[in-house]
Automatic annotation (TrEMBL):
<dbReference type="InterPro" id="IPR011051">
    <property type="entry name" value="RmlC_Cupin_sf"/>
</dbReference>
<dbReference type="Pfam" id="PF05726">
    <property type="entry name" value="Pirin_C"/>
</dbReference>
<feature type="domain" description="Pirin C-terminal">
    <location>
        <begin position="190"/>
        <end position="286"/>
    </location>
</feature>
<dbReference type="InterPro" id="IPR003829">
    <property type="entry name" value="Pirin_N_dom"/>
</dbReference>
<dbReference type="InterPro" id="IPR014710">
    <property type="entry name" value="RmlC-like_jellyroll"/>
</dbReference>
<feature type="domain" description="Pirin N-terminal">
    <location>
        <begin position="39"/>
        <end position="138"/>
    </location>
</feature>
<comment type="similarity">
    <text>Belongs to the pirin family.</text>
</comment>
<dbReference type="InterPro" id="IPR008778">
    <property type="entry name" value="Pirin_C_dom"/>
</dbReference>
<protein>
    <recommendedName>
        <fullName>Pirin family protein</fullName>
    </recommendedName>
</protein>
<dbReference type="Pfam" id="PF02678">
    <property type="entry name" value="Pirin"/>
</dbReference>
<dbReference type="InterPro" id="IPR012093">
    <property type="entry name" value="Pirin"/>
</dbReference>
Length: 330
């Protein structure tokens, strides 16, 4: 998914000072168009930018596609990150410049590695009536940020206990481990709890964690979490108890504090302004000829971002860079 903000802010992100427990409230961001589908963004937040290497979390739906237009994201570029798609309801067609054509379906994990550069599109299918899920980004560490682009698909087997069900799509939890390759230690799982049930989770105390509540009523220790909110837990937590009032669905993410500064602007994760500017310029040069936006099929120099095959939607031009040198923000 692309960052749809017209004037995306530059952010220098760090793991920051550890906070034991903190509730992150989402802000609404329209994806664009006259019937814009709105997403709820919890990362990056004003006071918390990363949870492990997770640097971007959008939560959307349930959206009636006939009213919102669904997801219709034309080809756009990424560098320095991995994208994670996880659906609760609906179906999305993924195409990227490495030639991958894949369907994103509920309970099926899709991980795209941008590395040195990739472009992709995401479009909800005509059969989709309700679209509901999360889109997340993972920052690549400095020694891996320029790896070759790639794509992985994984369908985790559900793990069940009394009053709960889990699907572990990244890392290890509840005795289950995902084979998906990541470049820093990560955790990602969907958890379902029946009404009036509880689940005790053993956590890696070297990780920080985020619990994004999609639906239901949830209490973690003494903290109540509302749907759409994310509960942040700093390092040092060995065990937590999740208590559901109404039936709960949540996404759990985590990882050790990232320990690096990153610069995130539009769809790029880099380390310097020069790196981000160069990526933007290369994308623009691939899109335009004689000042005119050209169709994929007539582009002469696809560059490091490549061309998304069999995609009729014209690619998204990059926003204008600010007129002053970007500066770090806390």
């Amino acid at each position: 998914m692309t960052n749809p903000e017209r004037d995306p802010g530059e952010q220098v992100l760090t793991c920051g000072e550890d906070v034991t427990v903190e509730v992150l409230t989402p802000r609404e961001v329209p994806l664009g168009g006259p019937r814009a589908m709105t997403v709820r963004r919890t990362l990056p937040a004003r006071d918390r930018s990363l949870i492990g290497a997770w640097c971007f979390v959008d939560h959307y739906g349930p959206d009636p596609v006939t009213e919102t237009g669904g997801m219709n994201v034309p080809p756009h570029p990424h560098i320095g990150l991995q994208t994670v798609s996880w659906l609760f309801t609906g179906e999305v067609e993924h195409r990227d410049s490495t030639g991958v054509h894949a369907m994103v379906r509920p309970g099926e994990f899709n991980l795209m590695t941008a590395g040195r550069g990739i472009s992709h599109s995401e479009v909800s299918t005509p059969e989709t009536e309700i679209l509901h899920g999360v889109q997340m980004w993972v920052a690549l560490p400095a020694d891996s940020k320029d790896v070759e682009p790639g794509f992985e698909h994984y369908v985790p087997e559900p793990v069940r206990g009394e009053g709960w069900e889990a699907r572990v799509f990244v890392g290890s939890l509840l005795g289950e481990s995902s084979p998906v390759r990541t470049f820093t230690p990560l955790l990602g799982a969907e958890l379902l709890l029946d009404a009036e049930s509880a689940l005790v989770l053993d956590l890696d105390p070297t990780y920080e964690h985020g619990l994004l509540l999609d639906a239901g009523t949830l209490t973690v220790g003494d903290e109540d979490v509302e749907p759409g909110e994310m509960l942040y837990l700093g390092t040092g937590h060995h065990r937590i108890t999740l208590s559901a009032g109404q039936a709960v669905r949540l996404v759990l993410i985590g990882g050790p504090p990232f320990g690096e500064q990153i610069l995130m602007w539009w769809n790029f994760v880099g380390r310097t302004q020069e790196e981000v500017v160069a990526a933007r310029e290369e994308w623009q040069q691939a899109l335009y000829r004689d000042g005119q936006l050209v169709d994929d099929s007539t582009r002469v120099v696809p560059g490091r971002f490549g061309v998304v095959p069999d995609q009729h939607l014209p690619p998204i031009p990059a926003p204008v860079m600010p007129g002053v040198r970007l500066r770090p923000r806390s």
